Amino acid sequence: MGGKPWAGVCKNVGQGICLVTMQKAPPFPITRAALSGLLAMFVSIGVARFGFAPLVPALAKAHWYSAAGAFWLGTVNLAGYFFGAAVMRVWRRPFPAKPVVLLFMGLTSAATLGSALNWGWGWFGFWRLVSGITGGILMVLMAAAVVGRAPSAARGRVSGITFAGMGAGTAFSAILVPLLLAKGLVFTWMLLGLVCVLATLAVAVMMPAARIEPSARHESKGLPPRPVLLMIGAYALTALGFVPHMLFLSSFAALGLHRGVAAGAQVAAWLGIAAMLGPPVLGRVADRFGFLPTLGIGYVVMGCAVALPLLVDAQFALICSAIAVGAVALGAVMLVAGAIAGMVPAARLPGDWGLATMVYAVMQALVAAMFSNLFHITGSYGLLFAIGAAAMVVAVLLILLSARLNTKVH
C-alpha cells in the first residue's frame, strides 16, 4: 500500500535485448505529501466550507441574504459536497493526482473570490455549489493521493497532518473572520480568497506526483467489505455524538447555565483547538497501535465526553468535554480513512472512502436538522447529549465487530 520499494529498469544493450536491472524506488516524500494534504483540506473544507458559518450573521445584517437564504446556501454547499464525493466513488479512469488537485483548489479559490461580489442569490449559490463539489472531491482525492500512498508505518502521521487541515482552516476562519468583518464583507472574502490562492501555489510547489488508479468497475461493484461497511456505520453514528457539541454546547454554557457569552465562547474555542490538534496526535497513536484500535478507544472517550455534561456542568468539565469531542470527532475522519486504506486494495480506496464521506455528510445534515427541531420542541440540552452518548455506545460496538471480522478475513 505504501508503494513498491524496488522497480525494474530496462537498459537496451543492443540487438533488441533488454537488460532489466532492479533499482530502489525513491522514498515517499512524507513531509511534502502531508503538508500538501493539509493545505488542500485547509482550503476546501476549513475555509471554503466551514468558514461560511461565521459569515452568515454579517451577510444577513448587510442584507446580502436573509437568514433563510443563508440556510439554503448551506444546503446547496452540502449537496455539492455530496455530489463531489459521489463522483470520486464512481470514477473509473486513471488520472494524475497533482494537476487535478491544483485544478480543484484553484476552483475553490475562484469560488471564494467570486463570493466577494454581491450579484444576487443565484451568483452566490453557484459558487457555494462549486466549493461544495470541490470540497467533496478533494476530501476523497487527498486520501487516495496522500494517505493511500504513504508507507504503512507512517500512514497515521501522514493522515493526521493531512486532515488537521480541516480543523486548522475552521479555527483560522473562526478567529480571523470576526476581525476582518470590521473592514467589510468584500474585504473579508477577498482576503480569504487570497489565502486560498497562496495555499494552492504552495501545493503546486510541494506536492509529489502521483497517479490514481481506481478499481475496474467489476472489482468495485457493490458495497465495501463487511468490516469496512460496519466501520462506515460507526462513523455515521458519530454525527449524533458530534452535533450536540458542535451546535449546542456553547449555547448550553452561555444560556442554559446562564454564564454568559464569554463562557460559551471559551468552550467553543477549546472545541476548535482540539479539532485542529486531534488528527495529528491520534495519527501518531494509530501508527503505534493501529487505526481500528485507536478508533475504538477514541469512540469510548468521545462517548464519555458527550455524556459528561449530563453528570457535571462545571465550566472545567465542559471544557474537558469539548476538548475530547473535538479531538476525536475530527480525528475520526483521519482514522477511518487510514483504516480503510489498510483494509482494502489501493484501487478501492477512493470508492470506499467516497462512500464513507457521502454517508457522514448526509447523516450530519439530518442530525443537525433533527436536533434543532427536537431542541425547539423540548428545550432540553440534556436530551441531545443523552442521544449522542447512546449513539457512541452503538458506534463502539460496531467498531469491535468490524475489528473481529477484519481479523478473520486476514
Automatic annotation (TrEMBL):
InterPro entries: MFS_4, MFS_dom, MFS_trans_sf. The keyword Transmembrane applies. One of its GO terms (molecular function) is transmembrane transporter activity. Keywords: Membrane, Transmembrane, Transmembrane helix. Gene3D superfamilies: MFS general substrate transporter like domains (1.20.1250.20). Residues 30-406 form the Major facilitator superfamily (MFS) profile domain. The chain crosses the membrane at residues 33-52, 64-88, 100-120, 126-148, 160-181, 187-207, 228-255, 261-282, 289-310, 316-341, 353-375, 381-401. The keyword Transmembrane applies. One of its GO terms (cellular component) is plasma membrane. It comes from the Bacteria. This is Major facilitator superfamily transporter.
